[in-house]
Amino acid sequence: MLSSYRCWIAVLLSLPALALAQPAAPQSLKDIAQQAILSNPEVLQRWHAYLAADGERDAAFGNYLPRLDFTAGYGKERQDAPKLSYEYTVNSRSLTLTQMLYDGFATRNEVKRLDHSRRVRMFELYDASENAALEAARAYLDVLRYRRLVTLAEDNYVRHRAVFDQIQQKVQVGVGRRVDLEQAAGRLALAESNLLTETANLHDVSARFQRIIGFGPAKTMEEPTPLSKNLPPDIAGALRQAQQGNPTLQAAIENVRAADAARDVRKAAYQPRLDLRVRRDDGDNMRSIAGRSNYDTAEVVLSWNLLNGLSDVARSRQYAEQYNVARDIRDKTCRDTRQVLTIAFNDVRKLTEQLNYLDQHQLSTEKVHEAYRKQFDIGQRTLLDLLDTENELFQAKRAYTNGSFDLSIAYARTHAGLGNLLTALGLSRAGEQTLAELANWTPAQDAAEYCPPEGMQIYVADKAALDARAQEMLKESAAATVAAMAAARPQQKSPPAAVIATPSAPKADMQAKPVAVPAPAPAEPAAVPSAPPATTVEAVLDNALKQWLAAWSTRDVEAYLNAYAPNFTPAGDISREAWSQKRRQVLGRTEKIAIEVKDVQFNVQGEHAEARFRQSYRAPSFSDVVLKTLSWQQIDGKWLIVAETAEPVRP
């Protein structure tokens, strides 16, 4: 323990040199997290609290060992008797050896209690280290985030400045409108405001970085790799892992065990105490006997409190309630940990999917902006169109940047909830060599009673149903448009129409069956698509097929497997579970997938349907073309795949 403490002090003494040298070199997330842990006051406080608990435990263990006491005395004594009275000087020395033989297991239970208390302090140290690393990661990523946002704001200002200068030149030569210049000036002022806001945000997060780490961020900071490895596949597995490894919950469980041992300590008050005592006394004029004398005593002493004013009963009741308090704190800690981890785990899932949409929005906006810019230069787009795309492009890039850094922070939060953020960063816990027994630590029967490892049911929007609703809305809109056009047509004034009739037909027939040829009218946009609309069921199936292809192409394993019904029967002699595991492995190792389908045909029979199409699959290591048949079944209002077959296309 002393050597470990000296090593810790040696590390702390090196911190001023690290603090002076670190900003000059490129900073990495691992180095910053380590620096934050070593210099964090709360971590140091927890470390010293652990050392104090270790000393307290050793002090309690000393009750097992013998006790040796030496006493000496010198003084006057006076003795009065009916016929004798005299005064003399007493000089005495005493050496007593006491060994506890039985104390009602008070010492054993006290050592046990303090062992658990020492573990509580150790887990609190681990928790403080995890929190310090998480705050350091958040501060590090926020500095990188706002540096990038400042760059985006600068680019946005440059583009708006260029547009403003271009409009100003046109106004000066008399070919531009003054109102366009005012509009460009307003947007330029907004771009300047955005730039000022981002620089202020960068200053604030840099100051926060300095508070957490101890010094400011360096000019060069490495872009960290997202901490996406070694995460459980689902929330239930994450919660089970947290119950084993989250230091906050571990400390709460050890606190329950310490309170339970404290109850056992109080039971010793109802038991006798047995001590072995060996004593030697010598001196002058001792025990009213003149001259030098000595006494040797060896005895077994039994002491037993028979009545203590019921204080022991009340004390036992007190510690029993403190045990209940510890259990309640453990359950609350478990629920808090479960909430934090569930939210972080869901943020990882949500942001991973959201980044795909934000990236698509960013790429599409860039293409639109480039096209609008060229069209504006040749007069096919208005200034308002161009400025709107400039702002939309800035917001799209800003949203994607925020989303990517939010995802990195969500990964760090998830690891912290699991209790392995330091491991994910490649760091070791402070003082983890001091308690080797923690390697086999388990909550066992002391796990929280009212905190099962069950996550919240994640709501996933049924996009196929939403797409079907959109198709229905489109049909209703088209029908309303046609009805409005039909209602408005008789009110329109048009030139007389030419009446074409067969000469041999009677006059009555000519009047009854005229063919009107109206004069040419301005073309109106088509209200409905030229192709005949698909039925509602086929539209839903088409959207379900698209969702299945999208999940497969993006390697979204959960969405891909959710497209298959629980009663799905894989082709070949393989079980549903084995097929799912194999698909997870295949999609997990594939880097890029391209899938194209053609000639899709649906055959709907009530709650069953069949889709046949030509499928082209391309991957870096494999490609093929097959004729695929998917059998669908409507289950709880949702079309799911129940069978899948493929036939190779022969050349």
From TrEMBL:
GO cellular component, one term: efflux pump complex
Domain Cds6 C-terminal residue range list: 543-644
UniProt entry keywords in alphabetical sequence: Cell outer membrane, Membrane, Signal, Transmembrane, Transmembrane beta strand, Transport
GO molecular function: efflux transmembrane transporter activity; porin activity
Name of the protein described by the UniProt record: Adhesin transport system outer membrane protein
Signal peptide (from-to): 1-21
InterPro entries: Cds6_C, NTF2-like_dom_sf, OMP_efflux, T1SS_OMP_TolC, TolC-like
Organism: Sulfurisoma sediminicola
Gene3D superfamilies attached to this UniProt entry: 3.10.450.50, Outer membrane efflux proteins (OEP)
High-level lineage: Bacteria, Pseudomonadati, Pseudomonadota, Betaproteobacteria, Nitrosomonadales
